[in-house]
Amino acid sequence: QLAKAWVNFNGTGTVAIRDSYNVSSITDNAVGQYYVNFSTPMNNTNYSVVGCNANSISNFEFTGAGPDTINRCFIGIYGTAFSDKTYVQALVFSN
Prior knowledge:
Helices cover 0% and strands 56% of the residues. The chain is mainly β.
């Protein structure tokens, strides 16, 4: 199955999308916590989300991601506390 949406964005300061497919915007919800808003909604909330972040090969933290609504998913970055990252990515699969 092909990806239904993906995004690469800067999660520090004013969040900014570098490149994307089927993503209209990013909402900065709190430090290290974002909503990825879809241009075209998913069919249901049973889609799968993969999130990652890295400033370098040795500088990354745990990234959790998951469905929220058919219109958006969430992504959170956590080490010893939530933190913003320069490079954040999300990949969404759905039928």
